[in-house]
Amino acid sequence: MIENQRLVLYLTLAVLACAVLIPLVTGLNVYYLTVLIIMVIFIIYASAWNFLTYSGQGSLGHAAFFGIGGYISTLIAVKSGLTPYLTIFIGGAAAAAVGLFIGIICVRMKEWFLAMVTFGFAVIIQVLVASQFSTVTGGWDGIAAPPLISNTVPNYLVYEYYSILLIAVIVILLFRVILNSKIGLAFSAIRENELEARAAGIDPVRFKLLAFMVSAYFAGLAGALEIHYLGYITPEIFGVDISFWPIIYSISGGLGTLAGPIIGTIVITLLWDGLQSLGLTYGRFIIIGIILVLVVIFLPRGLVSLPEEIRKRVPKWKVRFNKLLSK
Amino acid sequence: MDIGLDIFLQVLVWGLYAGCIYILLATGLNLIFGVMKVVNFAHGQLLMIGAYVTFSFFVLTGFNPYVLLAASIPILILIGVSIERLCFRPILGTGKLNEIFISIGLIYILENVAAMIWTDEWKVIQSPFESITVAVGDMKIPVDYLIIIVTTVIILVALYIFLKKSRLGLAVRATSQNRKAAMLVGINVERMDMLSFGIGAGLAGAAGTLWVVSGQVFNPYMGSVPAVKAFAIVIIGGLGSIPGAIIGGLLLGIAENFTVLTIGGAWKDAVAFLILIIVLIIKPTGLFGEEAE
């Protein structure tokens, strides 16, 4: 067990070292930087989505929080002239407030009901932003968002990348601290058996709402980062794809583990960009879809569990191999 | 806004006809849920495939699109049976969220296979009866709407007779009521899974044909909106309740069209979720739903 923990620590440090070194090694290549920036932002987003599953909840509409974070942060940055590095946290707070509201409605619901209602909220918020509030939000045309660092600064992408990486590291450490604390224990208790958790003196509603708010906060933060990096925002951000990506990343990596969303995001993003460079426009979606189906069926605990699964099966393969030889 | 009686009736007929497509989808979802206790979130993509199958046959043969129901339903039944066999059977009895994740994978696969075959442009075909209307009092109802409503009724009656009168239908109902007991009396429940999923997909295919015939545009990504509405109907009407699906579908079709008339077109898609959320706040298991497991 201790052996394993040390291994995990080394691996984490290795991944982090790669994340720090790759831009330097590749000579500040702009293409690699853009891939890395999006990847790190989505690691925050997928981790935030995954955080919700610790408490036994789920969401098919996290784009709502991603988008609200983006819109609020942009609007405040435009109106007040504050640097986006401050407004992203306000955007996150707005997403958390909406998350609390949606959470209060969803807290009694389970599985499909929760899935549908969260999905529905993303649709409703999209309509609200695109039509009711179009005077502020620019409707379907969207609005321009101020960049994190002005593009007149030389190598501004590099600074953006390292600042986003720093935020991501802090967020994931924070998740780790929360999940290793008594709060994390309460989450697992609620996830495994809500009735027993209640019998043990845990108030499921409070903890579920907390999970929803924290998850929404960091999804909003990720959305704000993404928007300030891209430089514009439209209601497309509430689309189904944005809701589904964190799910795909978390599942392929491994649901309910800290490393899962990180590994899933890295692997799927690399695969995605690789397939794109091969010129597969529709094919890459099909491949991602097939991977998702195969992972759910054959590797329900995600890529994280791959080494363990292989270790479990190697003896069987050896026996079979020896049989073949002896024939 | 002043709404005259004729506009009221007009909207009511629109709502009925829009409701027909939702009813076919929701009935299929309900049948699958009743027997397998899984929810197929990729159901709208089956409607989309049904629409394209109809489109292709129409372009190739030039038959009356209503006749093409005879093509889209069997093809979709085949697709449905394969999906059940390959994707849903392996995860039966595992975590409840797995079917949602499988469905997300299926959505990506089906949408983009369709985009590869038929490109992602919006398509539309014209019904041969497009210009024919029937005058009822002051208003004119396109004859297509009436045919669609009648077709839906025929399909639902056929399904009802199959479920209530045939031995196979009896087996389906038995599996849906109590899977273990059905197994004990010698029903091959896995075959019932395939059958119900096939029928569900066939109903989605029929909905796809009707979607095309009514002159609505379609592209590979159009499936999710009708599907989530159908799902909302299923929840409003109660999981597994087919009469609930029919009432819910009609209500939603009418509510949507009145929303367009009173609040504005942008709210058409959101109103289903507003109704859904309000219903679930009042009763978290759906209007006619039993206690969720």
Task: Give a written overview of the molecule.
Chain A has 327 residues and is mainly α. Chain A is globular and about 75 Å long. Chain A has one domain. Chain A has 14 helices and two strands, in the order ααααααβααααβαααα. In chain A, α2 packs antiparallel against α12 and α8 crosses α10. Chain B contains eleven helices and two strands; from the N terminus they run ααααββααααααα. A two-stranded antiparallel sheet of chain B has the order 1-2. Chain B has one domain (5-282): Orthogonal Bundle (ABC transporter involved in vitamin B12 uptake, BtuC), CATH 1.10.3470. The model of chain B has no long low-confidence stretch (mean pLDDT 85). Chain B has helices at residues 5-36, 43-61, 69-88, 98-118, 143-165, 167-177, 179-184, 189-213, 224-237, 242-262, 271-282; strands spanning 133-136, 139-142. The A-B interface holds A 58, 60, 105, 108-113, 115-117, 119-121, 123-124, 127, 130-131, 240, 244, 247-248, 251, 282-283, 285-286, 288-293, 296-297, 300 and B 39, 41, 87, 90-91, 94-98, 100-102, 104-109, 111-113, 115-116, 120, 224, 228, 231-232, 235, 239, 264, 266-267, 269-270, 272-274, 276-277, 280-281, 284-286, 292.
Question: What's this entry about, in short?
Answer:
Chain A is an all-alpha fold.
Q: DSSP helix count of chain B? A: 11
Average residue pLDDT of chain B: 85
Oligomeric state of the chains in view:
heterodimer
Name the pair of protein chains with the most residues at their interface, and give those residue counts.
Answer: A-B, 38 and 47 residues
Question: How is the secondary structure organized here?
Answer:
The complex is a heterodimer of chains A (327) and B (293).
Chain A: H1 2-25, H2 30-54, H3 63-80, H4 84-106, H5 111-132, H6 134-137, E1 143-144, H7 156-180, H8 182-192, H9 194-199, H10 204-230, E2 232-233, H11 240-253, H12 259-277, H13 283-298, H14 306-326
Antiparallel strand pairs in A: 1-2
Helix pairs in contact in A: 2-7, 2-10, 2-11, 2-12, 3-4, 3-10, 4-10, 8-10, 11-12, 12-13
Chain B: H1 5-36, H2 43-61, H3 69-88, H4 98-118, E1 133-136, E2 139-142, H5 143-165, H6 167-177, H7 179-184, H8 189-213, H9 224-237, H10 242-262, H11 271-282
Antiparallel strand pairs in B: 1-2
Helix pairs in contact in B: 1-5, 1-6, 1-8, 1-9, 1-10, 2-3, 2-4, 2-8, 2-9, 3-8, 5-6, 9-10, 9-11
